[in-house]
Design goal:
The protein is mostly helical. It has one domain. Helix content is 70%, strand content 0%. The protein contains 3 helices and no strands. It starts with 21 loop residues before the first helix and ends with a helix.
Length: 100
């Protein structure tokens, strides 16, 4: 029976680490895009109501996640938290440029 060749193993290169804050920058850009979309769909009064509803939904999701922790509850909380951030960013864009 012929002998098998010894398999050679090569060390894998580790990918370069992401630049500090790069992930946060991507998140901020996504929030800004969503905030601009909200501005296209909502007026200032509707936007204030949207933010208030989002805050309430975030509080409910937080309470549910605290009462019954699960990956799904955490996802709901993060989604609600992101909606609040998008709405607040849209409000800040209105305050920065009240002419629009």
């Amino acid at each position: 029976m012929p002998q098998r060749k010894k398999q050679q193993y090569y060390a894998r290169r580790k990918s370069a680490p992401a630049a500090p804050g790069a992930q946060q920058q991507v998140i901020d850009q996504a929030v800004d895009r969503a905030a601009r979309d909200l501005l296209l769909n909502y007026g200032p009064t509707e936007l204030h109501a949207f933010v208030q509803r989002s805050r309430e939904a975030c509080q409910v999701a937080d309470q549910e996640a605290q009462a019954q922790p699960s990956p799904e509850a955490l996802r709901r909380y993060h989604a609600a938290e992101r909606k609040v951030a998008e709405g607040e960013r849209a409000l800040s864009l209105i305050n920065e440029n009240p002419d629009n």
